[in-house]
Amino acid sequence: MAEIKIAINNKQEAIRNWVKKNRLEAILIAIIILVGAYLRLYRIDEYMTFLGDEGRDVIVVRKLLVDFDPILVGPGTSIGDMYLGPLYYYMMAPALLLANFSPVGPAVMIALLGILTIFLVWKITREWFGPAAAGLSALLYATAPIVIIYSRSSWNPNIMPFFALLCIYATWEIWQKHEWKWLIVLGISYAFVLQSHYLGLLLAPVIGFFWLLTYLKIKGKTHVVKEFLRKSFFGFGIFAILMSPLLIFDARHGWRNFSAIRRFFFERQTTVSARPWTALPKLWSIIEKITTRLLSGTYFLVGKFISIFFVLGFLLAVVRQVSLRLTNSTSQHRTVEKLTKDKFSSAAFLVLFVWIGVALIGLGVYKQEIYDHYYGFFFPAPFILFGGIIATLTETVKEKIFILRWLTYLIIFLAIFFLVLLNIRYSPLRYPPNRQLQRTEEVAQKIIDESSGREFNLAVIAERNYEGAYQYFLEMWGEPFVKIDPQRADDTITDQLFVVCELPQDKCDPTHDPKAEVANFGWSKIESQWAVSGTILFKLIHSQ
Predict the structure, then answer these.
(1) How far apart are CA 40 and CA 188, in angstroms?
(2) Which of 144, 62, 143, 58 is nearest to 104 (CA)?
(3) Name one GO biological process term (predicted).
């Protein structure tokens, strides 16, 4: 215990000394983090997404907290009939409990994790490319509209950017610094990545590649290799323990999840191509889409220019690194600090190249629509790469003639200023909040008022929503909501069905809608209807 206190005190002292030495930089990163916090937390209860999936999640976690119902499996995937692990549900539990079972609690947890990711982007970029690049990357990440949207709602893919970046940093610490304790961090963080979305599998080749490089680097040192392998085994053991609930679930259900994953990646050629080279023709369009969605405030024309800048900038970085290698091998005047910095920059670009390269190929072999949250396992990568390219560009012109040097600095400043303005222009805070949570509560309360305390069934007619969100409040408030089970029709079909229609009124026809919850209720007629918070609520009874 005393050793832990000493370590904490030493760390606090080191932070205080760093702040004193880098006061201006500390103030700037503090401002960036505060801006990022504001953009994520401002009226979060009104801006957060709260639909069927979010309702389903809080229902499961509430049962864990109230009924002590253990969770062995997480949410299902939208395609492929696969299930994720339950880690995200266990992560939600403290936040939901502290918020007194309000769904806002887990959303705030996601926002705080997003704020922590801003800091991690800054820390890693600073270590790799210096303080100026770090401030730039953190500022763009803090204000990027798409990143903000996925940083303020409770949803399992939304934890991936933080844990994916933590995986990359752990890999860096292992490969470059031989800090074997980070193998444990890697095992833990990768379990969270894999249980947030199966696209996290694309991080496995990156981790494996640098693990192998590390082994080849130290293979001649027997004692070091033994320690490396021992900690690797320990880290993998923790990973396996965290993945074990999903394994237990799968074993108890005929390995349905494993079979679904195998079919999805190796048999369903309509979804994923097994031939990596088929991704090559798509790479440029994917790069444009990524830069547009993440770095240009969703403005496509600017995204195209950034894509070109990325390619040319990366080529410049490669040329510079090769030049530095040749210079370092012949120069006698370069300091140890400068040599270390050059080595770190070269290694950092290799990490980014492998990370982004695997991501591009993985997305390229996927044949379906690529949604924004699919980028979660490399959300921070383009921002860090952007900072690295800017740092390389400024280093390249540092010793050039005065006019060229300052003209380059001016162009960089104007470009960054323009990108930040674009982020502000398309910031989600400029649009009215969706108030999905409030609407759900108001509709649920109206159902309670009109049900007269008697049992009732529920159905939702919508394009992208289902009963989960409304069901959560009805169950939490102890109302006599009954879910229809066709195999137990006599026990589960009540004498009243409330139908929430979120479509335009001319498309709402609850008595003839083919949805299972309506069809299973049987022949019915509308007894009453109300307009509630932008929806139409129908009360149906059985027709005589």
Answers:
(1) 26
(2) 58
(3) lipopolysaccharide biosynthetic process
Nearest CA to 118 out of 348, 429, 380 is that of: 380
Residue 467 in tokens? 């009963």
Residues 490-505 have pLDDT tens digits of: 889 999 999 999 999 8
Neighbouring-strand partners of residue 324 = none
pLDDT digits (tens, 9 = 90+) for 526-535: 999 999 999 9
Distance CA 506, CA 309 (A): 49
Look up residue 86 and give its DSSP letter: S
Residue 65: closest CA among 107, 104, 101, 103:
101
Phi, psi for residue 409 in degrees, rounded to 5: -60, -40
On average, the pLDDT of the chain sits at 89
Residues in the chain, how many?
Answer: 544
In sign, the C-alpha dihedral spanning 413, 418, 420, 421 is: positive
The identity of residue 125, as a single letter, is: T
Q: Which of 8, 164, 154, 167 shows the shortest CA–CA distance to 94?
A: 154
Q: Which two tokens stand for residue 134?
A: 């770090």
246-270, pLDDT tens digit by residue?
Answer: 888 888 877 878 777 777 666 655 6
The single-letter code of the amino acid at 265 is F
Determine the average pLDDT of the residues in 106-125: 97
Contacts of 138 (CB under 8 A, 6+ apart): 29, 32, 33, 36, 118, 119, 121, 122, 125, 383
> How far apart are alpha carbons 240 and 161 in whole angstroms?
21
Q: Cα(48)–Cα(40) distance, rounded to whole angstroms? A: 10
Phi, psi of 538 (to 5 degrees): -110, 145
Q: Which DSSP state fits 372?
A: G
Rg (CA), the chain: 27
The candidate with the shortest Cα–Cα distance to 264, out of 201, 174, 312, is 201
Residue 356, phi then psi, degrees to nearest 5: -70, -35
476 CB burial (10 A radius; 0-12, 13-18, 19+): middle
Task: Name residue 215's beta-bridge partners.
Answer: none
Compute the distance between CA of residue 335 and CA of residue 331 in angstroms, rounded to an integer.
10
Which residues in 277-288 are b (16+ Cβ under 10 Å) and which e? Answer: eebeebeeebbb
> How far apart, in Å, are the Cα atoms of 460 and each of 9, 253, 443, 505, 538?
55, 30, 11, 14, 10
HEC sequence for 208-224:
HHHHHHHHHHHCCCHHH
Report how far residue 191's alpha carbon sits from residue 506's, in angstroms, rounded to the nearest whole number.
Answer: 47
Sign of CA dihedral 140, 143, 146, 149: positive
Report d(CA 425, CA 419) in Å as an integer: 10
pLDDT-based confidence at residue 94 (cuts at 50, 70, 90): very high
Q: What is the pLDDT of residues 445-480, one digit of tens each?
A: 999 999 999 999 999 999 889 999 999 999 999 999
> Is residue 295 packed enough to be buried (19+ CB in 10 Å), middle (13-18) or exposed (0-12)?
buried
Cα separation, 453 vs 455, in Å, equals 7
The pTM of this model reads 0.93
